[in-house]
Amino acid sequence: MVDIFLVLAFTKSLLMKINVTLQDSYSRGELILRTLFGWLYILIPHLFVLIFVQIGVMFVNFISFWAILILGKYPRGLWDFVVKWMRWSLRLAARTNNLADGYPGIGLNVVDDRIQFEMEYPETSSRGLVLLRTFFGFLYILIPHGICLLFLSLAAAFVKIIAFWIVLFTGKYPAGMHEFMVGVLRWNYRVVAYYYNLTDTYPPFSLKDMSPVNNSLDSNI
Fold this sequence. Notes:
The protein has about 220 residues and is mainly alpha-helical. The protein has one domain (about 15-125, about 135-220). It contains five helices and two strands, in the order H-E-H-H-E-H-H.
């Protein structure tokens, strides 16, 4: 039975799209301001609020576990709440990594044209997979993905430094570097979405956008 769950998890399409738009030009002033004072005017206010939101997400994750076991589906309102939290987190990460200009809005319902985080709501969720993730997720999710993401994060730290100087002198972010940085974020968020029961599709070991999701999903989230 577990084998069937794993086959389904690996073969289903990943209905999830994560992206940060590459701008034609970047503000040198904002780059310097974020680098020197971002901790003060971006991180502190956002993290202060996100701490309480994260507590709510933990409760939702607990409730959703039992809801899926009993009902076979993730309650839509709770699912939307976690997706909005992840979208907010992506807005923040895009700025702290200098992938986008502009101040990231504070709140769950903020619209940001420079980031894209779309998921299709699953009408049903596997009871077997939610048990598998809960009891063995550390073994088949966190360990293999965590090892890969550790090295990718180290590489991303170097790319961020190099990209800083390029943007400072040219006002442009190299497309290849931008796509790599977005890819690392994309990989991270896929793992989080799967681990938090938002999808039954196992996250791919890839930096690329591999989702068939299109703009029609905007109305679903």
